[in-house]
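debug: dumping io for the single-chain case to check the tokenizer round-trip. Nothing else runs in this session.
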Amino acid sequence: MAQGCGLASGPLEFSKFKILCIGGILRVMSVFGLDAKSVLRRLQAGSSPPHVPTCGESLLAGSLGFALVSLVVFGTVAFGERWLYAHLGRLGSYAFWTLLFVGGAGAMLNLVVIGQRTLARFYGVFTLGFLTYAVTWTAAYFIFKREMGEWIGGFIGTIFMALVLCGTFGALHAVGRATAAMLGGNLAGYFLGRLVWTSVAGSPGMIGWGIIYGLGFGLGLGYTLYACQARVRSELIAKSALASPSSQS
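debug: decoded output
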């Protein structure tokens, strides 16, 4: 049976096709240099051992860092939404808020990325992931409107973002855990914060929404980065144990 457009005709061919596709995706994602192999290679050439964040440190940096950025973003909504809509339009305002999230959260979350001089690399990864999320969320919001759009956009957008983060870190094995953590943190933070906003109303309610959303989504992002770096962490811990005086006695 002839094959068209690269489609396989049997189970064996289809399995090979999947392997080739996954391999191609991983090669594209590795351009950022945050996969385990690239990180370990750069660390071998370095002079000082890197800090290896614990799970607690990753969760703390993720939640507090993203909450701080979210507070700034929601603060501009609380006190400057009308001005932004008047000068930038609705889509321009959403783009502005996205840039604030990317610029601030990228720097905060980079604190738990293992390696040296990772900021530019992680900014590339986080920009790609968050833009994927933001575009999906915004499209769903405009198509389905109100809470339905928020649910659909938040759900699908978060899955896409988790795939981007896990793929660029070469950690597709962590997709399930990362997606669950990000979905739970993002949706819980967003809709609990929304509940606070509808209950309190006004600027204080919007500020509360921003903080709760940031804490929730930040927890999910912190855990995702911790899970994505499992291989690098285990390699470094093993090398540290072999190099310790007790292991050589």
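debug: round-trip ok. The longest helix spans residues 55-109.
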